[in-house]
Write a structure and sequence with these properties.
The structure is a homodimer of 242-residue chains. With 242 residues, chain A is α+β, with helices and mostly antiparallel strands. Chain A contains 7 helices and 13 strands. In chain A, strands 1-2-9-4-7 form a 5-stranded antiparallel beta sheet. In chain A, a hairpin with a 2-residue loop joins strand 12 and strand 13. In chain A, helix 2 crosses helix 3, helix 4 packs across helix 5 and helix 4 packs across helix 7. The N terminus of chain A is likely disordered. Chain A binds a DNA duplex (30 and 30 nucleotides) through helix 6.
Chain lengths: 242, 242
DNA sequence: GCGGCGATTTGCGCTATCGCAAACTCCGCG
DNA sequence: CGCGGAGTTTGCGATAGCGCAAATCGCCGC
């Protein structure tokens, strides 16, 4: 199931401070603290479609995504999948230990080949003890994710599917959009099915909506690829009064 | 808009450690730390239907609910209301400062007359500096709320209305249920409209569902009051495969 | 004890969206 | 360079749940 791959010599060797010095979680740390933070960390490569960790699995480590994109998924008891969010470079994931959990509440699957840093859970206590700001920074991160989750609840409760898809696309653009010649594209492969699992609908409905938008010149989309040509018009759809 | 009421002499006078010593946020503190924690705190009474704080309002304070029940509401731009959650006694609310926000992301409205403790935001830094465990405890609280929010996203994405209402009722029972003679009742007044706003449906549909359940002997409900007679059968409905 | 109002119930159309089947497209591999 | 399969498109019912109107109920205050 798991498909870690140690990155050659780097796995246990010294990791460079520069890997994490610019990240919000470790912002404002001294060089010594950065080195301390990296003690016990290992770097891995996780191949596309492999899991960084799995829902309900024993939480042994926490992680930092150095490079790539990770999809956080929750599986319902009857096997339906819901995509909770995508994680971008530089974010912490799998911090069950910080929340006092001993299993992961969701799975994290690489959307592309990823580089990940991992620490054994036991390091968390040492880290927060020596670096008090880490708790506060993490609290901010978790707070932001909670607000995003609340926003999605509100969307699901009050908006129609087309608006939810529009909001979701805009959110993805904001988090991981890449400017290209004629618009902004999502910088990893994403299928109709993925979007359906983010918006609580079916791939059929997503396909119909994207086809419609394409007809209107709003987006250009193909196999696992979406480019938004006119973000402002998408916003109009997203925010339309019912 | 706000309707605080100072509690006689207690407002600025010494507050007793016993108010907070048993609460998870302050668990494991020494007496001196408890006294320190209470410095700068004031106690208020918030009348039913009055706001503790309001969405988008400048976050000047954070709060602890000592007694009563508070409903956390979010208002959409077009005026629809969504109930994010109910807060029970002993929980922190309005901790925007901990998440680095300067406005409240939601409103908090008293479901019954409540007693609330409040601190000016500036105290947060002092508290977390002197009491490092507070950050960690708060992280756990926020983590738990995030998971609850994620659960609701999953429910909204995968379940039909009846199942969502069942899950919501069960959640309310768990958080605030009070055992009575013939079942478990929700401990504060709650309308069909409130439940609709929690589940993303309409009061009509909620009414139909409750009438149906009442006919089957599952619940007994009246004006702003719901008693669950057979929680296990409700669970069966909640967890039904589609 | 009565009046009035907010809360609830219930009937009846209506439609957004699902669910499935079938066909099509395109990428990657041999 | 053609094959196979995953990803996508599109048509066509079926339906859960909405939205509104109208009636009823039951608390609370006077």
């Amino acid at each position: 199931m798991f498909a870690y791959k140690m990155r050659g010599a780097a796995g246990l060797a010294n990791l460079d401070r520069s890997l994490i010095s610019a990240l919000p979680a470790f912002s404002g740390l001294s060089g010594a603290d950065l080195d301390f933070a990296l003690e016990g960390a290992r770097s891995f490569i996780v191949r596309k479609d492999a899991a960084v960790f799995e829902q309900d699995g024993e939480a042994h480590s926490f992680f930092l995504l150095l490079h790539g994109h990770v999809r956080v998924e929750r599986l319902t008891p009857d096997g339906q999948k819901v995509v909770a969010r995508y994680i971008s470079e530089g974010e912490l994931i799998g911090i069950a230990v910080a929340m006092g959990r001993d299993t992961y509440p969701a799975s994290a699957v690489a959307a592309v080949d990823c580089t990940v840093l991992s620490w054994p859970n036991a390091r968390w206590a040492a880290l927060t003890a020596r670096i008090p700001a880490l708790s506060g920074n993490t609290l901010k991160t978790v707070g932001a994710r909670m607000e995003e989750a609340q926003n999605r609840v509100v969307e699901m409760a009050t908006e129609r599917v087309e608006q939810r898809v529009a909001h979701t696309l805009l959110r993805l653009l904001r988090q991981t959009g890449r400017k290209v010649e004629d618009g902004v594209e999502i910088d990893f492969p994403i299928s109709r099915q993925d979007i359906a699992e983010m918006t609580g609908t079916t791939l059929f409905t997503v396909s119909r909506i994207l086809s419609d938008w394409e007809g209107k010149g709003l987006v250009k989309s193909g196999r696992q690829k979406i480019t938004v040509l006119q973000p402002h018009r998408l916003l109009v759809i997203a925010e339309a009064r019912n």
